[in-house]
């Protein structure tokens, strides 16, 4: 069987990876000095002129399958410590280059930037990404074609940019210690280079013949030849962190509480060889310097997923990604200590992480029609393991997780296989099967206690295929009501669903770059066979100048049930939205609107209403960024003569950033979230109004990865009149981290 799979993989590899151009790396000899390249972005050293030039780029946007309209040159060098990549982007009108100041990991499509997708395995499944915009701001992380960019991981690397007569250039210096690779592998590394320009159009260009229809951008990566005898020595780092806080808590009717706290933590990283990384953390401080944006959540039944941002959990985070969120390290809420082992070989990846989570954390207990929560009254040990094997175009993996609660309170365990098959450039198939066993159950007080053992399953399958004329996809989910994954993120269980999409692509039509007509549908049942939702939604999507896009769709007869014993409602609604990048000052604007029938979850009643959201990226001054956003959701009672409003929720955020220098920023955030309800229109007790306001001021000096200083102040005011007294909380903090 294995021989058949290998033969099939070899045959399909020949089909999907046709002979292409290659990047040829020039080896820098030791007699060329300790610092053969001056990192200034200019590429004026003789060594750059000796390196072979790669310059065949293809345009994917706005026009597909055409040679790039502007020349881009790529050169690759390496020595015993670093990989160097030099890129020159020629521009027929350099005055239009968008070189905006930006924060790390905030490079966006309204700017001119280069991107490197480096795949040391040559497997075309995942890559480390290194972006830089024309101002020199960097963004890095992990990319895969199934889940896109994850910019949470930060790697140690240097890059400089410069202008020349007729364009701009960049010099990358990436330590081999920042790249996970198998020194013994004979498979050459793969590289895909992306160039982004936004003018009257957004021009997206690649070093490979990437197309808009493909489901595998990395399939068009080219080999880097000439790289031999790469280093594989011991590498380590330690990052102590010191956090000092002063807090006050002033709640009406109670004495003001004040507190001071100082905490020291330590993150450690050890690489015994180029393929293996061992991470450890002691007493970690996981406070978020960045505030989460407010979200509309007053009329929802399910928990909202939050992305992992904490450094310790980010090493090898791509290995844990599967169709289901079977592993979500955010479920480890307050670890005292943690240890992680990650290994990447040419044909397989493996990672295991274990951490002790302190008592008091919330545990998701998903149900069919809502997400419940339980409290862990004791500490727990959380362990997650994932292995992934590459066999040509097929990736086969398995997951095992365990959460064991102290004092005999029980456990939750999940395990199962999965696969991803890139059948060809435009066709992808994925599947996953998980089994769970749980005896940590919820008691009447909402605490976890040892109880009877329950078992469950979660199954997933999806398939997608596209070309220049059509796109089609379908997915199936089957999650039993007793399935639970305490180390993952499942907000709902006890259902079966099928989702499908069909798109007809008309390509360029007049002034439009794209015109697509589509129809999507969903059919979902609960475990008892009752219809939970049924939708049929036709719509139109277009793309045009200034990276603009717009859509409109209509759902004339949606069936939806929000309560196990509730009615199956019939709804009709319309949705539309647009986005564009007009210029450097108004970098991006977007708006989405939904109108029609809305189910009031708390009342289990149908009303009329909708929601809209607006956002923008503004740069009125060269060193000033403004990112305002505003969202509104409302429901009117359709059964009253006046259509009286039953519910309204708003969420406002204004994020402003002043770039004092390339390493120093001052950020000011204002957030305001409010909810109002009409108590006379509910049979249960509801709060007539509630509000939460947050103001934040943070100064940041970032000297490098792992070395930074943060000084900040945050003020939070909240109130729910008649139910929760007015409360004002303030925090003054300093956070220092330095990498050794």
Automatic annotation (TrEMBL):
Chain coiled-coil ranges: none
The organism of origin for this protein: Undibacterium danionis
Matching SUPFAM superfamilies: CBD9-like
Pfam families for this protein: CBM9_1 (PF06452), DUF5916 (PF19313)
Keyword field: Signal
DUF5916 domain location: 261-321
Domain Carbohydrate-binding: 39-197
Signal peptide range in chain numbering: 1-21
InterPro entries: Carb-bd_dom_fam9, DUF5916
Protein name: DUF5916 domain-containing protein
